[in-house]
Amino acid sequence: MHFSFCSLLIFFGAFLAVAVTTCTCRALGSLDFTELDIDFTELDVGHCDRSEALCSQQDLPSLLAWHRACRRNEEIVKPLLIQTYNGILGHFVDDVEGFLEMLTYYHAVITREAALAFFLRVERAVSVAVIKKEGWGIERELEDKFNLTHLREDNTRSNSAIPMDEHEHCFFLPSGTTIILFVSVTNSLLQPVAARRALMACMNYFNAGSFGCDYPALTLRRVTFKPDIESLTACQEIDLKAHLNVLEGKYGFAAASSDISTLVPVGAATTTPQGTPLPGVLAGLTPCLRTQYLCPRQEHFFGDGGSLVDFFDMSGDTVECVQRDRCAPFGPAAVWRLTGYYEAYSQPWNGYMDSPVCNEVHQ
User: Fold this and answer.
1) Taking a C-beta distance cutoff of 8 angstroms, is the pair 296, 338 a contact?
2) What element of type H or E holds 143?
3) What residue range is the signal peptide (predicted)?
4) Of 33, 88, 27, 24, nearest in space to 59 by CA
5) Residues 6 or more apart whose Cβ sits within 8 Å of residue 99
6) Is residue 85 a contact partner of residue 207, using CB atoms and an 8 Å limit?
7) Angstrom distance (rounded) from CA 195 to CA 199
8) Where do the structural domains in the chain lie, given as residue ranges?
9) Which segments in the chain show pLDDT lower than 70?
10) Within the chain, how many helices (H) and strands (E) appear?
């Protein structure tokens, strides 16, 4: 039988297409897409609606894997991420785009339960964190532009000897819900985000440009660390249990105390802190989790090897613009460790993280 040169090219092209399709299916299967009832061999990559339907059912790690793969995937995933925060903020303000533009102008970010809702892709409540110098401006605009009623300002704690991490302002919406504004007492925007250091699951943020989760190895698996109850005062214990009830009841979290290694896979972090020995077990004790950025007394900041920080638009111009404007995650950043619930700041900074929230670092 006679084969022309063109026939051989067509045959080779068909073989290559099948090989690429097979490799693609295997790659997608590694992201848990195989749990969906979808035949990837029939998926026409020319139709974005099928890809969007596929991605809409995925968790955040799977979406980010698609998001980083190529520019076309970014165009599919970006609207889904925006849809997630629109669904959260839409319960509180009619003009979500205007609300986010205001946050960008004042270098503010969404944090606390709302940020957790974004990373888990559910819709809940809204808290906002802003730096000290922008606090008055954003308070006024929330009242004037978004017609929110300023209910109260909380600048005190039951233990007056402990410095404030932030000033708390409560705004009332006509729908009966509230927006909480946390104004940092320093130039570090992310200090209020880190203030809930007793619960790793609450240390997240997002704004119109970027999003960050400091403990993705735990949070995205719905696991959180909690301090030993014996180390807390009665008021702190009540506060902690209230937050744990929200995490366990609404989001299905598992809360672990000091022995959290049994809830975390060995390869949770992609990098290892410089100079840290490999984890080991001595006399039946649990292994050190420092190499996985999960040691409760380990120093942390958004951008270290154990955190997840990403951008909705990954183009170079957008990231450079965020960096130039010193918006999160760039600019002054709080450094902390999970040494307790609310501990005194009496010890001076000496490079060894003696206080829960330490001096700022600049990224």
Assistant:
1) yes
2) helix 135-144
3) 1-19
4) 33
5) 89, 93, 146
6) no
7) 9
8) 28-89, 90-362
9) 1-58, 122-125, 152-166, 174-176, 196-198, 227-232, 235, 257-288, 296-297, 338-363
10) 11, 12
Q: At a CB cut-off of 8 Å and minimum separation 6, what does 133 contact?
A: 187
Whether this prediction's pTM lies above 0.85 is answered by: no
Are 17 and 10 in contact by the 8 Å Cβ rule? The answer is no
| Residue the block writes with tokens 């925060």 | 85
* Encoded amino acid at 236, one letter: Q
**pLDDT tens string 255-268:** 876 554 444 444 44
pLDDT computed for residue 51 by the predictor: 57
Write the pLDDT tens digit of every residue in 74-102.
777 788 888 888 888 888 888 899 999 99
Terminal Cα-to-Cα distance of the chain (whole angstroms): 67
Note whether 189 and 104 are within 8 A (CB): no
Token pair listed for 310: 């990403």
* Tokens describing residue 286: 């649990």
The pLDDT of residue 349 is 31
